[in-house]
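Q: Hi! First time asking for a complex rather than a single chain. Here are the components, and I think there are two in total. Is that enough to go on?
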Amino acid sequence: MAEAPKLFKVTIDNITIEVPAGTTILNAARQIGGDVTPPAMCYYSKLQGSGGKCRTCLVEVAAGSTADPRPMPKLVASCRTNVMDGMVVKNITSERVTDARNGVVEFLLLNHPLDCPICDQAGECHLQDLSYEHGKEGTRYEFAKRTFEKEDIGPYIQLHMTRCILCYRCTYVADQLTNNRVHGILDRGDHAEISTYISTAIDNDFSGNMIDVCPVGALTDKTFRFKNRVWFTKPVDAHRDCPTCCGKVTLWNRGDEVLRVTARKDQWGEVQSYDGKPGWICNTCRFDKKDMNDWVIDGPMKVARHSVISANHYYSGTVKPQETVAEVMGGRAPKLLMDIHSISDVNKPEVHLSELPGPATGATFNSPTPLKGSNGQD
Amino acid sequence: MGRKLLLDKAHVENIRLYDVYRQHGGYRSVEKAIKTMSPDQVTEEVKKSGLRGRGGAGFPTGMKWSFLAKPEGVPRYLVVNADESEPGTFKDRYLMEFIPHLLIEGMITSSYALGSNRSYIYIRGEYAWIVDILEQAIAEAKNNGWLGKNILGSGFDCEIYVQRGAGAYICGEETALLESLEGKRGNPRIKPPFPAVKGLWDCPTVVNNVETIAAVVPIVNEGGDEYAKIGIGKSTGTKLISACGNIKKPGVYEIDMTISVEEFIYGDEYCGGIASGKRLKACIPGGSSVPILPANLLLKTAKGETRMMTYESLADGGFATGSMMGSGGFIVLDETQCVVRNTYTLARFYRHESCGQCSPCREGTGWMEKILLNIENGKGKMSDIDLLWDIQRKIEGNTICPLGDAAAWPVAAAIRHFRDEFEWHVQNPDECVRRNYGLMHYADPLKTATPA
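A: Yes, that's all I need. Here is the structure of the assembled complex.
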């Protein structure tokens, strides 16, 4: 029996919206957009089973549903909690949430090296954005940060375990995109680390997507390392006919030089979907096609995020100046409104600027009978 | 002397062996359940008994069983949580080591009630020798027709398997346990869905503590109503308490929940008082993760009533002036103990055992440990105490599983009740490494309720 999907009414920060049953609070909030959307560091809508770990998306449920309007006692992870009909959610309107989120940001930054000046992710780092938007100005942590031994996980991907916030996204990529996962979480607690077991290299056609999903600079592109800051590069959307992947990418250029290739990202920093399928790209596109001739340019990338990379770039929020002439003229839109050259005294049509020997001065125009070819001083 | 239902035969020689166990009335409950009762009737008896989960949370077992989803064509599982790793708790070890057949018997009866044809015991890896004991007991039970196909001609099949953990406290959390049992990394799952709907291999699953399952045996034998007559209020039946710390007679005691905390500590039948004639300073009444209580609040509630060894009485006053029954790990501290040091030890444990999945617990536990170590070593600052309070507040309730709460509560309670001891450590940095704060006023009779 074909039934229209049931719609649930949910109120997030006093904004009511109808979403299909089974939508999470986070995705409902994303439909509203703006400040109402809780930040998400580990949840990735294209990766099944992700989310629930970073606790930045905690929200307060002030009323569970119309049927059972009791509030939920604990803050819930909005990325893993489905909406109910009549649910009332408080995100930025709840002090508890702001307080807990402050705490989570502080926790996430405790052992993060904050080496943004030398980190390739800087400028498009979700942790940077998160700490700017939801963190406090300082930390109260006074101890040495946890560090890890450097580990080589292959020719393409650079692993900086010290920067990792253990969102587990890369393991989901390996599980769901590649045919075998050779890396995972070793050990537990604050000494847990992402690594390959007994130092195997990660070698897979789609392993590069781990770089795209990494919210911080823990996994970066070795072919782009230290080449440029992302905000100095010019991102353009491009495509190629790729036999293994969708071939739709963003090129990060300096002049004609392709410095980096990534998948196209949407406003949540996630890989864009085409016809409902996430546009993951293969390693060939990402690491080997570093020539403009490999690609067909689609146009400048519209940076949908508000991060540093949106500076000096096209972004979808651009407001085009509106032409009001037609409105004023009652629908008539003449190219030139009026030629005032011949009747204006201000610009003295008899002065031919091109014939002056030097630059025009006030005297050129002020002298009662300016001479042709003179600057008025002789 | 209170009634003993679980350990009454524990002293019988060779009770570990099937023949002796059977002679002493073993496996009667299986016979009774399978021959005369329907599975729902067994569940009904457990409901009537008022049995509460013995693993720590104290959730009514019968209710938990009735929540089990029963879709057609999907197997259901019973998993026994024998991953007893909480510091101070060792009751299940005793039970499994000395009367393993009691657990097996309880499991068969419970499996019958729940319709589980494959039941698992997930046992802590460090209990290596108990695995052999259990496996021998399972083999004996099977040889005598209590396990396998068509038990007692009823058409009910049941197998029991023992799975060893690999030494992680977090695998005692029920969903982490299921992950581990499936062969994955023992990370707690995000709930909902609860195991009663989607548990082991996505099938409906009941996870129960060893003692809970063992308690099903006397409940079926004597009837739920009889069982419910023991104890006070909603704390029915008997409870195993593993007492340790500065007491004369540490060990596992079975109490019917009618005695007071004072009687339990000082009674000759139980702990026998504080060792070496010292005075009681504090106690953690339910395993390391429940709030610590100073002596005065331990023996009397804030209302001035005698505190009893029951779920309700121990929790009286909430976290402000009460604690929890927890898993029954009764840790007694005498006047020579340093609460700061104890709290540090616990914080170190939780940092080590945090799975590292969600950030507040992963980062916060380590931070608390470092601050506590500083205070313990006389390097602390006054602001550290408030900082600790703020950290625990931001961990509690914001994590996926209860380990975050378990790590936060001991720190919170220690600061709440022993703040002056922390301050003394900060103000006397030299002295605090040489001597302990001592008993001070912690055993003084309460005048008014201590503000939180």
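A: The domain at 339-434 of chain B is CATH 1.20.1440.230 (de novo design (two linked rop proteins)). Let me know if you'd like any chain examined more closely.
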